[in-house]
């Protein structure tokens, strides 16, 4: 379980500053889900080998009206979505009525709460911290987020509340792990039902390590699959029951935990910002990817043409992923999804040998030499596998840090072709011996 931490507090106490500080190691993953979540921001961080997720919120001012009350609503939702709350207060401003209001709310929730007394710089901590104890929320952690001071100690205390789970605590899911992700209402539940088949052979359902998602093991044509059900269809006891609330945390965790992500979009709406965020997260996480445009049944021919062109244009940068135009409702095109899922999984988990990777590298270099840097040619000597799903290829040489992007792209294309890496991101890592 990756603990989820919500940053809560008045505006201006330093939440964004702390957020950036906590997520710096992986800030490429920080996604700003504007629109969908108003001002909630999700990021991932790591400290001492432990991963965690952070949710930043707009802030609660205590005088909510109009847009402010929406922001407060977002903060309250972030609290519900989290495993622990980091409640930020401002040492320079002292205890305010808004802080007391937030404290009152937090005391009613049954969430581990950590009071973070930020902006302790330039104050006498003994005096500055004293008023905050009145809130009755326990130990207080002084920090200076702008200088990362006190942050590690606070984080260690927080994470120690969430011991790492014993490995293999739950039975390992079998076969390819597939996550169907997408915005609310694009047709995830409908597709999940289709993928499982009319006469589905569900071996058993299992509460997963992913928050609230259910892992469904099943068999299709003799192959094993595990579907990570973020849509919550298996939980609905009857069709009337409302769909569970869409949860970004759940979605991001399902992506992280899957082998292959099926990103479902609504063809009648085309690609929207939130689709691109999910796409970005999938690629950053290195997951194999299949894109499906759903609700293809309802479209006029001219509109279909338009959607296809638009997609080609906007998705040029991920030309490695298959795109399917499907109707989950009628089942059209759904069977072909499995072909792409299988192919992407094979590519993502293919065994690579040092010999082969090195030979491809040497051929590529012979074909097209790396440039000279300050009179010395960049040398690339050998390559070896560094991992799967995504495939990681580690390349050794000299001055590799100077390789131009275009050359790195050239190597990536060459490896993609040589290894038939279709449907998966690939990572090249460079090591320099000098
Ligand atoms: P948010 O509204 O809670 O997200 O607050 P921000 O992170 O935007 O910070 C508000 C202001 O406080 C910014 O000008 C920050 O540079 C400043 N700030 C944040 N942390 C500290 C700190 O530890 N010490 C001091 N002196 N200023 C800080
Ligand atoms: P989820 O929120 O992503 O799980 O979406 P649902 O599976 O609940 O579907 C949302 C709505 O879209 C429902 O009314 C479905 O009947 C409808 N829908 C799903 N797939 C299709 C499709 O392929 N074509 C059309 N026209 N409607 C669909």
UniProtKB/TrEMBL annotation:
Residues 3-166, 176-349 form the EngA-type G domain. GO terms for biological process: ribosome biogenesis. GTP 1 binds at residues 9-16, 56-60, 118-121. GTP 2 binds at residues 182-189, 229-233, 294-297. The keyword rRNA processing does not apply. One of its GO terms (molecular function) is GTP binding. It comes from the Bacteria. Keywords: GTP-binding, Nucleotide-binding, Repeat, Ribosome biogenesis. Belongs to the TRAFAC class TrmE-Era-EngA-EngB-Septin-like GTPase superfamily. EngA (Der) GTPase family. GTPase that plays an essential role in the late steps of ribosome biogenesis. Associates with the 50S ribosomal subunit. This is GTPase Der. The chain holds residues 1 to 434 of 523 of the full protein.
């Amino acid at each position: 379980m990756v603990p989820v931490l919500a940053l809560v507090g008045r505006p201006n106490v330093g939440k964004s500053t702390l957020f950036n500080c906590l997520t710096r190691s992986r800030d490429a993953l920080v996604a700003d889900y504007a629109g969908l979540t108003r001002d909630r921001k999700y990021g991932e961080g790591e400290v001492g080998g432990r991963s965690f997720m952070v949710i930043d919120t707009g802030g609660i001012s205590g005088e909510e009206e109009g847009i402010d009350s929406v922001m407060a609503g977002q903060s309250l939702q972030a609290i519900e979505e989290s495993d622990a709350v980091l409640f930020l207060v401002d040492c320079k401003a002292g205890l305010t009525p808004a802080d007391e209001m937030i404290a009152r709310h937090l005391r009613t929730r049954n969430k581990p709460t950590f009071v973070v007394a930020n902006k302790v710089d330039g104050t006498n901590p003994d005096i500055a911290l004293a008023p905050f104890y009145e809130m009755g929320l326990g130990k207080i952690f002084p920090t200076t987020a702008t200088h990362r001071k006190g942050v590690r100690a606070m984080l260690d205390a927080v994470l120690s509340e969430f011991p790492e789970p014993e490995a293999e605590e739950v039975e390992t899911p079998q076969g390819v792990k597939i996550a169907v992700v997408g915005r609310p209402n694009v047709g995830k539940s409908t597709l999940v039902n289709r993928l499982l088949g009319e006469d589905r052979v569900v071996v058993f359902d299992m509460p997963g390590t992913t928050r609230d998602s259910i892992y469904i093991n099943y068999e299709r044509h003799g192959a094993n699959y595990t579907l990570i059900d973020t849509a919550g269809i298996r939980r609905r006891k009857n069709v009337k029951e409302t769909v569970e609330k869409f949860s970004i945390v759940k979605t991001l965790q399902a992506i992280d935990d899957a082998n292959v992500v099926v990103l479902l979009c609504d063809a009648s709406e085309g690609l929207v910002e939130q689709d691109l965020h999910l796409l970005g997260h999938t690629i950053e996480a290195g997951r194999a990817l299949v894109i499906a445009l759903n609700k293809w049944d309802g479209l006029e021919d001219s509109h279909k043409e338009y959607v296809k062109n638009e997609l080609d244009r906007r998705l040029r940068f991920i030309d490695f992923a298959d795109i399917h135009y499907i109707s989950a409702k009628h089942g059209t095109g759904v069977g072909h999804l499995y072909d792409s899922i299988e192919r992407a999984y094979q590519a993502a988990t293919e065994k690579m040998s040092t010999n082969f990777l090195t030979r491809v590298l040497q051929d590529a270099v012979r074909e097209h030499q790396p440039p000279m840097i300050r009179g010395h040619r960049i040398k690339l000597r050998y390559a070896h596998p560094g991992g799967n799903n995504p495939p990681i290829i580690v390349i050794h040489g000299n001055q590799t840090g100077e390789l131009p992007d275009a050359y790195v792209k050239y190597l990536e294309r060459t490896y993609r072709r040589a290894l038939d890496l279709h449907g998966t991101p690939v990572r090249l890592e460079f090591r320099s011996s000098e």
